[in-house]
Design a protein that fits this description.
Layout (H helix, E strand, L loop, with lengths): L5 H55 L3 H16 L3 E8 L2 E12 L5 H13 L2 E2 L3 H9 L3 E3 L11 H6 L4 E9 L2 E10 L7 H32 L9 H17 L6 E7 L2 H8 L1 H17 L19 E6 L2 E6 L5 H16 L3 E3 L2 E3 L3 E7 L6 H17 L5 E3 L2 H23 L2 E10 L5 E11 L5 E2 L5 H7 L1 H23 L7 E5 L2 H4 L4 H12 L6 E6 H5 L2 H13 L3 E7 L6 H4 L6 E4 L1 H5 L5 H17 L2 E5 L4 H9 L4 E3 L9 H9 L19
Parallel strand pairs: 12-13, 15-17, 17-18, 18-19, 19-20, 20-21, 21-22
Antiparallel strand pairs: 1-2, 1-6, 2-3, 4-5, 5-6, 7-9, 7-12, 8-9, 10-11, 14-15, 14-22, 15-16
The structure holds ligand C2E and magnesium ion (MG) (2 copies).
């Protein structure tokens, strides 16, 4: 075995030493790697905890400000950066940021902190200005490693005084819109940290969801209180404002306010003739004009307290608008506003589909006293509006208590009417129509009466309009037609020797507007077995003029099934002569108002004469409504009028008396043009 020399020993020692060192290094390295890994793991865990805390909070809160404050605190603690700000952009002023939250810690120079924060608050961070403005403009995060070297950093002096070196900011995006910006500062110089930026982007997204949720909630809230077409407050919000005004009035008895109920006149005509889209367009165009009539002054009360009430325009639906007029001196102020509204609506036409459309409104005004509720007040204004409408529209009425009494009565009548229809409490009276030439009865007009009880008979003028409004008229008119046809059929059988008598029946506007009118009439003719040529349906001019084209069609179809048509109350409504000649009517009934004034008004006489000429030219017969005296009859005869229906011959009488007239073969003798002697008077 060879002997190891001294040199060999030292070589071996050196080798072992090197090996030991290598192993030591390797161990150190391994330890370093392990430690780094651990730290990374730890950092990652902190990041996850941060993200989780923010996600949890984002799920719980729906207000952005709350969320921003929370995030600021969390992030400053996470990064150990000592200062942070949050800014929001307002939905309607999204070109500017407003500071909303601040967080700072570890900064000892309180004065310098305050100075920096004040500078921040006083700076307008418009799009592109300063660090937050840059983020607002780009929608992306921004990192400034050394504030001193950044030429666009507007708060440089106070930042340096505070010892701030590095800054970064990131946006909160709701869709494309930068809803908020968060910025952070460090007193050390730190290079851009990709990991951190990534985390911030994730946080920005979380906050974006809160913004979107908040916006959706606000939209929902807005929609619940606003009208979708015009964006005006709706009924709910209006009533709420009204309630505020009423509460205020309770505390300040001198405070006065008014409610205006504005309903457009003939809006239905626009809707029906130009279509619903055109109707919507008209409403949208009307709103800005209505808004100009409101006072623009602020909400500070003149009688000394700041209130949250102001003039409010709302849309209740359809063509109904309401206006709350705040703090007026007297109802006259409200009247003046109503006049302004009329003026602004009527002076210039609206342009719908390049067509000029004129508008006007019926306006009702009500003021409150201590007793009324918000609902009552609105109802009162509504009643006053109805009054304005019944006066022909385009005018304004102030509510008074009698309107309420009338409305209550009306409701009672309405209910009674319904019951009367079910219990069959209606009867027909018949008024003879007499030939001026022969003096013979040629037919009857059936006139409905309401037998309220054994002693009370109610005439149509006191209930027909209510039946019209409620739609009960549809049933009533059909009942009248059926009953009248049945009676006439019987008379025709019982009195065969006379030329076939005719039966005239009034049609209501409501029934005339029904699509199945012709079918309904046909069904009754079939059911009663009457010859349709004996049936005369009476319509008025105003019923036909709303939609004259349709009227021509309906009337033609009625003619086709064989019935005759009369134009009732002629001369009182609005006529378009151009349509009149297209209406296949057989008879004109001259309104009673002309006949009754014939004696003392030469004008009336002339009007009758012109109507006679018109009728002749159109090939129609003429019935004079309401001749009461021999003089009337003479004059009408002189004018060569065909028929008369008036008290001179007979009042409307019940079926029994009408039958008696026929039995007596009543002929009103008109011996000469000067003497007329009725042979029988009912
Ligand atoms: P109208 O169709 O013009 O009927 C004629 C009205 O004039 C009747 O009133 C009749 O009694 C009245 N009258 C007739 N001759 C004279 C006269 O010489 N002097 C005076 N002062 N009045 C006379 P009434 O029965 O009260 O009916 C009023 C209106 O009610 C009718 O006017 C008609 O528009 C409507 N009406 C009546 N019955 C019905 C019905 O069944 N359905 C519908 N929809 N309306 C009806
Ligand atoms: Mg009539
Ligand atoms: Mg009439």
């Amino acid at each position: 075995m060879p002997q190891l020399t001294m040199t060999d020993h030292s070589v071996e020692l050196a080798r072992l030493k090197r090996r030991l060192e290598r192993e030591h290094h390797a161990r150190l390295e391994a330890e370093q790697i392990a430690e780094n890994g651990l730290r990374e793991l730890y950092e990652q865990q902190r990041r996850l905890q941060l993200l989780e805390a923010i996600a949890v909070k984002a799920n719980q809160t729906s207000t952005l400000n709350d969320m921003l404050q929370f995030t600021l605190t969390q992030l400053c603690q996470f990064t150990h950066w000592p200062l942070g700000h949050a800014y929001v952009s307002l939905p309607k002023q999204c070109d500017r940021l407003y500071p909303t939250a601040i967080w700072h810690n570890y900064l000892t120079d309180e004065d310098a902190v305050e100075d920096f924060c004040r500078t921040t608050e006083m700076t307008f961070f418009d799009r592109g200005i300063g660090l937050p403005g840059r983020v607002l403009a780009t929608g992306e995060a921004a990192w400034i490693t050394d504030i001193a070297k950044d030429r666009d950093f507007v708060r440089q002096a106070s930042a340096q005084q505070l010892g701030l070196k590095t800054a970064f900011a990131f946006p909160v995006l709701a869709g494309q819109h930068v809803a908020a910006v968060l910025e952070f500062f460090s007193t050390q110089e730190i290079q851009p940290d990709a990991e951190l930026l990534h985390t911030m982007a994730q946080i920005g997204m979380q906050l974006g969801r809160v913004v979107e949720r908040q916006m959706a909630e606000e939209r929902l809230k807005h929609d619940a209180f606003h009208d979708s077409l015009t964006g005006l407050p709706n009924r709910t919000l209006f009533l709420d404002r009204l309630q505020h005004a009423m509460n205020y009035q309770k505390r300040h008895p001198k405070y006065l306010f008014a409610v205006l109920f504005v309903d457009l006149d003939r809006f239905k005509v626009v809707n029906d003739s130009l279509g619903h889209l055109a109707g919507d367009q008209l409403l949208s165009q009307i709103v800005p004009r209505l808004l100009t009539t409101l006072r623009s002054e602020d909400t500070v009360a003149r009688i000394g307290e700041t209130r949250d009430i102001k003039d409010t325009l709302a849309r209740l639906g359809g063509d109904e608008f309401t206006l709350l007029l705040d703090d007026i001196h007297s109802p006259n102020d409200a009247m003046r506003v109503a006049e302004r509204i009329q003026h602004t609506l009527t002076t210039l036409p609206f342009s719908i589909n390049e067509q000029a459309v004129y508008a006007s409104a019926s306006i009702g005004i009500a003021t409150a006293d201590q007793q009324t509720s918000a609902e009552d007040l609105l109802r009162n204004a509504n009643l006053a509006m109805y009054r304005a409408k019944s006066l022909g529209g385009a005018c304004c009425e102030l509510f008074d208590q009698s309107m309420h009494v009338r409305a209550v009565n009306r409701l009672i009548i309405e209910n009674d009417l319904r019951r009367a229809l079910v219990d069959n409490h209606f009867i027909l009276h018949y008024q003879p129509i007499v030939s001026f030439k022969t003096g013979a009865i040629v037919g009857f007009e059936a006139l409905v009466r309401w037998q309220k009880n054994a002693t009370t008979l109610i005439y149509p003028n006191d209930f027909i309009y209510i039946a019209e409004d409620t739609g009960l008229i549809l049933l009533l008119d059909m009942w009248v037609l059926q009953q009248a046809c049945r009676t006439m059929r019987q008379w025709q059988i019982d009195f065969p020797q006379q030329q076939p008598l005719t039966i005239s029946v009034n049609l209501s506007a409501r029934l005339f507007a029904q699509n199945n009118l012709v079918e309904q009439v046909q069904a009754i003719i079939n059911a009663t077995g009457i010859n349709p040529a004996s049936v005369r349906l009476e319509i008025t001019e105003s019923m036909t003029m709303d939609d004259a084209e349709r009227s021509v069609q309906i009337l033609s179809r009625l003619k086709e099934i064989g019935v005759h048509l009369s134009i009732d109350d002629f001369g009182t409504g609005y006529s378009s002569l151009s349509y009149l000649h297209r209406f296949p009517a057989d008879i004109l009934k001259i309104d009673r108002s002309f006949i009754s004034r014939m004696d003392d008004s030469p004008e009336c006489f002339q009007i009758i004469q012109s109507i006679m000429n018109l009728a002749r030219n159109l090939g129609m017969d003429v019935i004079a409504e309401g001749p009461e005296t021999a003089a009337h009859v003479q004059q009408l005869q002189a004018l060569d009028c065909d028929f008369g229906q008036g008290y001179f011959f007979s009042r409307p009488v019940d079926e029994q008396k009408a039958t008696a007239l026929l039995h007596g073969a009543c002929v009103y003798s008109m011996l000469t043009k000067d003497t007329v002697i009725p042979s029988l008077s009912a």
